């Protein structure tokens, strides 16, 4: 029996008091018994909610939360009960622990309305926490302000101020945070954990407010007494070191790190502190110390406390100290360590990128390319746009360094649009450079123009901008846009009068003068540059000397040019321009008739530059020397040798023509045909074979071998269907068919000409004229007339084709009995400077007059022909025979006798003689 029951408390009251006594004594099982029994026996008692409340407390303490919730819910249904607010508070905690923060907040709010100040302040505090957890920050903040205003003497007051401080801190409002922290009362029983946390926060507020000395003091003080409350020490340790770094007390910070407590030796904050120390020494231009600290970091701490950037930063520092081998080893170590931890390739991109950067900077481009190609394949897996951009940029720069410009142009055919505009500009520059080096000058001009427009708006690197400007000038120069090039160079010189690239500007201005034929001006520019005291890049200096030689060579000042070329060749014999200078020296001696010196220079060039373009040019020069000196046996052997050694040379065609001329001069037709057939069937360059085909055709044509010429043309068209000789051959084949009377076949051959088949206007006229003649012979007078008129309109006063067209037009109008029109065109044809053709046109005019019934005029014109063209005996004979016929018809004996005398004096052909005898017999 409990004391309550012994003292005479009966009924529900007795069970309640007994249960309370047992609960206070901690006998929860017995307390449960009394409360349960009272609840069971006295269902109508006013103490029913009390029994439920305490049973809920017991279940809560015993972690029987569903049962506790049921008991508290009963009490929560009685707003006027003395335990109503306590039950709501307990229900709030049940919801809070189940993360039902919205419901918890509601119950805490109800509990906060209690007149019990201790309960109300606690409920307000936890209501704010529930609101924060439910992302209702503003509402939580208001509740805390209410708590601090209404319950300044509560146990939660300090915690509420600390919570307000942390809210402000997280919002980076460090002044407000510091205000709340300073408002916190001192704990009654000495420093507690909340106070130490507040002091830690105060230290960080000072740090972020740049009050580094104050922060350092706070952090150091927090580390002086760590008895039982050491949770703040790690961050205080880190804060002290960071504050000392900000105060430039690097050695003190380093000493603080070294003297750290044993339990922080491998702590995350120790790794963070060492990392910050390494960064600080690097930024303070003490890379050696930074490297030492960086190596200590990656060596002494487990990989779980390290960052990928620790290895990247250390490697970069090592590379700045020219220790590329160590840098690459550092990166390799990082890749292995993080790969063993299961990190993906995407995470390790920064290390692979740094590896590529170091290899690139060390001019190990082939190795860098291998790394970058592997990254480029997986570029879409790279999350950071900046890293993906670096892959693109490093890769194309590496390709450009290796001279693989086509790959650069392919990769950057479409520049990724998600890159920032300045990054796109960098890629435009690289693409422009690749285009410039590969001869795509239009693309280079466009890219450098676009680059310059972007950097003009973003203020890029001046040196790079100047380079881009001059690269564009080079592109324009190669596009022969000389006026625009000159204007750009003038603008450059005016904008940057002190630029280190001015010699390059002047060099281009000299080249423009050379191109314009202003050789004196060019020579003056290059002489001024060559003698300038300004430091010039060695490669450009060599180019300037060479260009000076070119100016003097163009002025035919060969001795001076030779001296310049000799200077260049002696200055740097391995430079390609030195080889070009030797070739020009040989040409200069050749032009002066100093063949032996020319030969010696060419031989030297061949010796110094075997199997190169220089060797090729020198060999060609020696062959020209041999030809000029009539050394035909040597020439014949060496030309064939040259063609075999350099089958794709641009000199093979002129040499083949030279050898052709040699054989023709010596009358060696068989050798000439053998040479051409050998080239035609051998393994030679296409342009050389084309020339051989055409030369065979011309030779056969010259020798009158028409069928062989036709075969030559057919083979040429089959092998080179759209060559520069297509028009020549199709025209010949069409004429061949025309003369055979195969008009349709002739027209088919002409119609087969490609769109650009006759770029030569003379050949184009020939084609049109032949088409007109074919149409005329085929009876298509309308089309023939149109074609003849086209030829006549495009011809000149001395164009033989125009006179033929006039005759053709006259013939068409005669057939149409439009005699006046016919006479008009015959009259034009009679102005032909070739007397035979002119006489024939006049004869046609006379015949036309006769056909028109104008006999008197016709007879006069027939007779006139003998006076106009006495040397054209055949045509004079035809005209006099026609005049005799008309005289006989008109019975004009006197005139007939005179004409007969003239005919007897002529040498008539057989047909004319028969016609004459026939007329005299009348």
How would you portray this structure in words?
The protein is an all-alpha fold. Among the domains are: 8-81, Tetratricopeptide repeat domain (Serine Threonine Protein Phosphatase 5, Tetratricopeptide repeat, Alpha Horseshoe), CATH 1.25.40; 96-185, Serine Threonine Protein Phosphatase 5, Tetratricopeptide repeat (Alpha Horseshoe), CATH 1.25.40; 403-499, Tetratricopeptide repeat domain (Serine Threonine Protein Phosphatase 5, Tetratricopeptide repeat), CATH 1.25.40.10; 750-833, Tetratricopeptide repeat domain (Serine Threonine Protein Phosphatase 5, Tetratricopeptide repeat), CATH 1.25.40. 75% of the residues lie in helices and 0% in strands. The chain has 50 helices and no strands. The protein is elongated.
Descriptive tags:
922 residues, mainly alpha, Serine Threonine Protein Phosphatase 5, Tetratricopeptide repeat
Structure summary:
This protein is an all-alpha fold and 922 residues long. 75% of the residues lie in helices and 0% in strands.
CATH class of the domain at 403-499: Mainly Alpha
Radius of gyration: 54 Å
Which CATH architecture of the domain at 403-499 is right? Alpha Horseshoe
Q: Averaged pLDDT, please?
A: 89
Distance between the termini: 183 Å
Oligomer: single chain
Classify the fold: give the CATH topology of the domain at 403-499. Serine Threonine Protein Phosphatase 5, Tetratricopeptide repeat
Q: Which structural class do you get from the secondary structure elements?
A: mainly alpha
Largest sheet: none
Strand content: under 5%
The helix tally amounts to: 50
Amount of helix:
over 70%
CATH H level, superfamily name of the domain at 403-499 = Tetratricopeptide repeat domain
The counted number of beta strands is: 0
Give start-end ranges of low-pLDDT stretches. Answer: 1-8
Shape: elongated
């Amino acid at each position: 029996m409990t004391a309550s029951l012994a003292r005479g408390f009966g009924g529900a009251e007795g069970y309640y008091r007994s249960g309370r006594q047992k609960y206070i004594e901690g006998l929860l099982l017995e307390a449960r018994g009394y409360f349960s029994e009272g609840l069971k026996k006295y269902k109508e008692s006013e103490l029913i909610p009390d029994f439920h409340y305490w049973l809920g407390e017991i279940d809560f303490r015993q972690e029987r939360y569903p049962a506790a919730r049921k008991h508290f819910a009963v009490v929560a249904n009685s707003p006027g009960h003395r335990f109503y607010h306590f039950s709501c508070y307990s229900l709030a905690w049940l919801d809070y622990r189940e993360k039902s923060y919205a419901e918890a907040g509601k119950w805490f709010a109800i509990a906060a309305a209690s007149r019990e100040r201790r309960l109300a302040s606690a409920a307000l505090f936890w209501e704010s926490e529930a609101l924060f957890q439910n992302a209702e920050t503003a509402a939580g903040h208001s509740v805390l302000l209410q708590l601090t205003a209404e319950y300044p003497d509560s146990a939660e007051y300090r915690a509420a101020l600390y919570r307000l401080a942390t809210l402000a801190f997280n919002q980076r409002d460090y002044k407000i945070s510091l205000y709340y922290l300073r408002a916190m009362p001192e704990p009654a029983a000495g420093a507690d954990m909340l106070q130490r946390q507040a002091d830690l926060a105060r230290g960080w507020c000072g740090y972020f407010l740049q009050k580094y000395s104050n922060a350092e003091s706070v952090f150091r003080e927090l580390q002086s007494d760590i008895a039982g409350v050491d949770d703040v020490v790690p961050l205080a340790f880190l804060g002290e070191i960071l504050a000392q770094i900000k105060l430039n007390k690097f050695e003190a910070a380093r000493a603080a790190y070294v003297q750290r407590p044993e339990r922080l030796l491998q702590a995350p904050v120790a790794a963070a502190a060492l990392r910050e120390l390494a960064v600080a020494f690097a930024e303070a231009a003490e890379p050696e110390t930074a490297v030492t600290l960086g190596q200590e970091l990656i060596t002494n701490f487990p990989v779980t406390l390290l960052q990928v950037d620790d290895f990247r930063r250390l490697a970069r520092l090592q590379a700045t100290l020219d220790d590329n081998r160590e840098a690459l080893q550092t990166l390799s170590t990082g890749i292995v360590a993080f790969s063993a931890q299961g990190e993906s390739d995407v995470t390790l991109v920064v290390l692979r990128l740094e590896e590529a950067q170091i290899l690139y900077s060390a001019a190990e481009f082939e190795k860098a390319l291998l790394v970058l190609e592997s990254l480029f394949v997986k570029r879409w897996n790279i999350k950071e746009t900046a890293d993906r951009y670096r892959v693109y940029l490093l890769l194309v720069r590496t390709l450009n360094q290796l001279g693989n410009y086509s790959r650069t142009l392919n990769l950057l055919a479409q520049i990724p649009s998600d890159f920032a505009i300045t990054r796109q500009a960098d890629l435009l520059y690289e693409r422009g450079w690749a285009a410039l080096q590969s001869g795509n000058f239009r693309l280079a001009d466009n890219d450098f123009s676009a680059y310059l427009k972007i950097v003009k708006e973003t203020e890029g690197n001046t040196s790079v901008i100047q380079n881009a400007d001059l690269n564009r000038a080079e592109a324009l120069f190669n596009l022969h846009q000389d006026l625009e090039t000159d204007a750009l160079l003038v603008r450059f010189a005016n904008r940057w009068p002190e630029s280190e690239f001015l010699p390059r500007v002047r060099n281009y201005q000299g080249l423009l003068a050379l191109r314009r034929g202003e050789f004196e001006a060019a020579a003056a520019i290059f002489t001024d540059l060559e003698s300038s005291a300004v430091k010039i890049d060695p490669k450009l200096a060599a180019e300037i000397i060479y260009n000076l030689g070119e100016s003097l060579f163009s002025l035919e000042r060969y001795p001076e040019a030779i001296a310049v070329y000799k200077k260049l060749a002696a200055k740097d014999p391995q430079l390609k321009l030195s080889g070009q200078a030797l070739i020009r020296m040989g040409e200069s001696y050749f032009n002066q008739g100093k063949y032996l010196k020319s030969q010696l220079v060419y031989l030297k060039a061949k010796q110094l530059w075997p199997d190169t373009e220089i060797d090729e040019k020198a060999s060609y020069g020696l062959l020209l020397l041999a030809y000029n000196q009539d050394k035909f046996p040597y020439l014949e052997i060496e030309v064939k040798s040259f063609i075999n050694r350099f089958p794709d040379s641009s000199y093979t065609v002129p040499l083949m023509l030279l050898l052709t001329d040699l054989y023709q001069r010596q009358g060696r037709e068989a050798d000439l045909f053998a040479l051409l057939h050998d080239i035609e069937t051998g393994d030679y360059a296409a342009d050389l074979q084309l020339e051989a085909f055409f030369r065979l055709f011309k030779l056969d044509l010259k020798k009158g071998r028409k069928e062989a010429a036709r075969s030559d043309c057919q083979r040429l068209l089959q092998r080179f269907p759209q060559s520069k000789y297509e028009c020549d051959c199709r025209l010949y084949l069409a004429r061949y068919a025309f003369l055979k009377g195969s008009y349709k076949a002739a027209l088919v051959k002409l119609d087969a000409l490609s769109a650009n088949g006759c770029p030569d206007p003379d050949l184009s006229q020939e084609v049109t004229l032949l088409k007109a003649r074919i149409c005329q012979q085929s009876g298509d007078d309308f089309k023939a007339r149109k074609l003849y008129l086209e030829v006549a309109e495009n011809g000149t006063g001395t164009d033989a084709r125009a006179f033929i067209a006039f005759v053709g037009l006259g013939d068409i109008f005669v057939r149409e009995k439009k005699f006046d029109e016919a006479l008009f065109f015959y009259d034009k044809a009679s102005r032909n400077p070739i007397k035979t053709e002119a006489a024939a046109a006049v004869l046609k005019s006379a015949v036309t007059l006769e056909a028109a019934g104008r006999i008197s005029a016709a007879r006069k014109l027939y007779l006139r022909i003998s006076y106009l063209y006495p040397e054209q005996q055949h045509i004079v004979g035809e005209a006099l025979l026609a005049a005799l016929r008309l005289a006989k018809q008109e019975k004009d004996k006197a005139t007939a006798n005179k004409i007969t005398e003239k005919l007897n004096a002529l040498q008539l052909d057989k047909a004319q003689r028969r016609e004459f005898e026939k007329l005299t017999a009348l």
